[in-house]
Amino acid sequence: MQQQKNVQIIQSLQTGVQILEIIANNDHPLKFTEIQELSGITKSNLYKYLNTLTQLGLLYRDKRHGTYSLGGKFIQYCSAAIGSKDVIGRVTPYLRDISRYTAQTSLLTVWTHEGPVIANIWNANYGLNIGAQIGTRLPLMSATGKIFAVFNKTPEIEIKEWKLKELSKLTEEQRKEFEKEQVEIEKTYFAYAAEPLVEHVSSFSVPILDFNHDLVASITLVGFTKLIPHKPTDEVSQYVIKCARELSESFGFKSGK
């Protein structure tokens, strides 16, 4: 089919989306100077764009640090697009309780056609750089990625394509090690990853399942490596597993099915 020529576009809207993409693709909130450097937009125009996007709720400006991150309205749109609005509302109170109980950062992650992404974060330690923010896609060898690789059965074609793409990035030894690890993850409903994104920051993840034993989402605990347990039998691990089990039951999950 011949491509349509001379398609009319709204340049200012395109620029606004470009700014959102720049912020979404970085693993930390950005300062004005960083956004300007990455976008090439003049100072006067960038101020207008950032003010407009902030007022619309598509961006959030932290007045203490002068940084910009994705705003609540943007997150609402993303939630609607991936069908996770109800999941976020149901899981968020648990994220809060988990962070309070463990003094660590808790994440909600859901599936998209490009892999698992962070849908919500409850930060217990604002000085900790976890190497990701809302909207970040997580790799296979993260704790979250391992949970999705093991428990996410639908849509099957997307899962297979994602796993093949991610496995191609690993060495033969890493692939063999992961194959062994999958068996234990399926048995314990628990996955651990040592420093997958940021040095000295590790995580573990547990699944939230529905009445068909299909994966709805996962809860991930993130913190300094020495503070994150790597076994499901740890007291902290058991608390998070208990929360995930309660959430699974709310989606109709019954063990032993």
Descriptive report:
With 257 residues, the chain is an alpha+beta fold. It has 2 domains: 11-70, Winged helix-like DNA-binding domain superfamily/Winged helix DNA-binding domain (Arc Repressor Mutant, subunit A), CATH 1.10.10.10; 75-250, GAF domain (Beta-Lactamase). It has helices at 11-24, 32-39, 43-55, 72-82, 85-102, 143-151, 156-167, 172-188, 235-250, and strands at 30-31, 59-62, 67-70, 105-112, 115-122, 191-198, 201-209, 215-224. Helix 5 packs antiparallel against helix 9 (235-250). The N and C termini lie far apart (50 Å). This is IclR family transcriptional regulator. GO terms for molecular function: DNA binding; DNA-binding transcription factor activity. Pfam families: HTH_IclR, IclR_C. Keywords: DNA-binding, Transcription, Transcription regulation.
